Every structure is written in structure tokens, then in C-alpha cells.
Amino acid sequence: MYLRIPADLPLQSASGSPEQGRSATTQTLREATTTDTPQNQGKSASHAYKKNGPRLAHRKSRNGCQRCRARRVKCDEARPVCRDCHRHGVACVYDRSEGQPHTAQTKSQRSSPHPDRSKIVLAGSHETATAGATTAPCSCLQWESGYQAYTELRLLHHFTIGTSLTFPGAHLQSIKDCWSIEVPKLAFVYRPLLYAIFAISALHLYRSKSNETDLIGVRAVYLERALRDHRVCVGSMGTRIADAACFTCILLLIDAFASLQDRPLESYRPPIEWMQLVRGSVSVFDAALSAIQESKSARIFSIIRSSPSFTNQIFTVGTCDCRHFSHLLPSEGFGEGDGEQLLSPKLEVYRSTVAYINSVWLAIEAQEHPAMICRRLMVFPLIVSQDFLKLIQEMEDRALVILAHYFALSATLTDIWWVGHTAHREVLAIARTVSAQWVTSMSWPLTTAASHCRICTQS
């Protein structure tokens, strides 16, 4: 667009300088091409700045959302949706981990009937894990529509109607109601418990329907969240979360025992990690129980009151000897000639361990309910001394044989999904590991495990 300057336009005032004349000309041109409003003048200046001004440098987003990194713009990393994605109305995907990430659905996930379930995570941050224990249920979690919400609803539903019925002591109505009704309520105000529920439910679904292999990844995600957030929360144990923390520990212990079915056994090593995990939970229970000792409404007390030591004193360690398994001790007969003295410091370690195995065997012979037998077997790492754990860690033959007898007792519970074929796998692996002089002592564990193994009985 060309503008014609009138010939009679004064280029210089009578009393002004040439510079003032040029200034007047510039002002006239500006007035001819713009309106007189300050708003439009501001818009013009802003437009010129955006068009011609240089792009300012910024620190690159290493943990920003996928879209901001692709556009090479600064991401404010707000969760669950950053500022730019919110402004453009697009999906905000955080695919790089820092603290506790949040992953929203991408367009490809919405169009795909089978999204990558192993990448499902929940909103929130590592720093707010403790706060999640005391917030209201609605603000504790930030749900996303789509597959994640569906999966979590499915897992919670399955826990209440299926998984909770398989736990130790669930044959009692009070324990059954506690796990299926009260524990989910506690989970709404204690995020680690909710994560643990999702993890154990996903594992149970996978064991029940092995064709749904994606559940392995789902379980791994929630288990990692449960462990990490639980570790943070128990550091500041309070009355409100103490009850839920106890149930979280129990779920994590059951999950750990269920995982024994999948551990590699080619070069046998005892399950020390599981045993140490069980022993380490004692400190959490002690802290939690001390925090709620005055509370009569704590749900964990219903679990404690129904434990075997409270219900039947006949089969406790203090009233049992090693009668049925005395041949495992270094005494006349089998133990003779193995180089160990009767007064060896190991003797009492072996005796107390064998006595507990004998007490479990007596309970099985008395046809105690399998759910109660599970509880006896689960606390085995707590009953035995730390010295026994050291002996099996050092691969002592006698300690390994005693451990094989313990696993053989769990063979009677092979129909319980989280026990499964662990007994047969562990006993066979120990039999391949111990020296030849212990072959005779391994006959009972091998026979017992094989007789209850579904694979062996079907073949």
C-alpha cells in the first residue's frame, strides 16, 4: 500500500529545524495507518515484537510432557496437565520419570483397543505420599477417564469379591468382612494400601486367567507405588494411618510369598529376601500397634485376636517337641557321624526350628482349617531365629533339609493361588543342592510335595 503525501504538507515549520520536520512527517504517516486508540497502538507494537523479536532462550524441559519436548518449548511440568496442553486442549503425556509421574491417555491409546497397560500410573507426587494418607477420598487421587479408571475399578471389585476371600483366616466371617469391607474403606484414605490392593488383585487375576499377560505389568506398576509410598508414610506413623499400614504390610507379605512361584531356581539360593521382608515387617507392626493401642475401633485387632496362638494353644511351639522330625537334629541315629557335636551352638537353633515345623504338622494332622495353616506357615521367618537364616544363607545342608520340610508342609495348600506349586519347586531344588548323605532325609519332603502337586498327579 502506497500513501501519497500532499505537496502542501509542511516538511518544516517556520521556526523548527529539519529534524523536527522529519519527525512531523513520521507522525503523520503513523496517524494515517493506525487508529488513534491506545489499545490498537499497543496491539500493533506487540504484533511487531512477536513478528520481528528474537525468541528468548530457556532451560530445556528434560522431564516435561511429550508434546512440549517435541515442540521444543518450555513445559511448566504441572500435573496432570501442563499449561500449554491445557491451553491447546490436547492430551498431556508424561513419559519420563521424576518423583511419581502421571501418564494421561494419548490419542493413539484412545484409538487402540489394547493400550500399553504396563505404563498405567496414578497421579500424585512422591512428596505428597504422606499427605495422601490424611486427605479426603476425592482429593487423594486424580482419576483419568479411559482404560486406567476401568482397570482400577475392576481390580478393586475383584479384590472385594474374590482375592480377599483367599487370605489367611478368611474362613472366619469376621476376618472375611474385615478384608472385603473394612480394608477397602481404609484404602481410600491411605494410598499405599490402595496400591497394594490393586497389585495383589492384578496378580490374582493373572493366576486365575493366565492368558491376560498384561496384568503382569499392571501389577508391577502398582506394587512399586505401594512399596515406595508405604516406605515414606511409615516414617511418620500416626494414629490415622497405623491401622491401614498394618494391612498394607500383610498384603505385601502375601504378594512376596506368591512371587516365590516365579523365581528362578536353576542355581538354588534360599528365599532370604522374602524371609528378611517378613522379619522387617515387625518394626512396622510394633510402631503401628503402639500408635493405636488405645483405639478400640482399629480393624487390625480382629486379625490379631484370631491368630493361631490365641485360638489353640495345643499346637504352639512351647508345647511341642520335635517328635515327628527329631531325625533332623544332630543326635544318635541320623545325625551321628556328620561331625556336629550335641552341645554345638547350632543345636538349639535347629531344635527350635524343627519344633515349629512339628507344631504345624500336628495342626495339619488335626485337620485345622487350611486358612489357619496358611497363617502358621506365613510367620515361619518370624518364629525361627536369625541364626537359622544365616545357616541357610551359608547353604548348610542340615538347614536346607529343614527348610525343605517347611516347604513340604505348604504342599497341602497347593490349591490356594498364592501358595501354588511353590512347595514342589523349592523341595526339588533343595534336593538337587544338598550333598549325597542327606538324600535319605529328603525322601519325606519329596514324597509329600509330589503327592500334592497337580502337575505330578495329572501326569
TrEMBL record:
- Keyword annotations of the record: DNA-binding, Nucleus, Transcription, Transcription regulation
Q: Please verify whether the record's keywords include Glycosyltransferase.
A: no
Where along the chain is composition biased (Basic residues)? 48-63
Can you tell which superkingdom this protein's organism belongs to?
A: Eukaryota
**CDD domains hit by this protein:** GAL4
- Domain Zn(2)-C6 fungal-type, first and last residues per copy: 64-94
Q: What is this protein called?
A: Sterol uptake control protein
Keyword hit for Nucleus: yes
- Write one Gene Ontology MF term: zinc ion binding
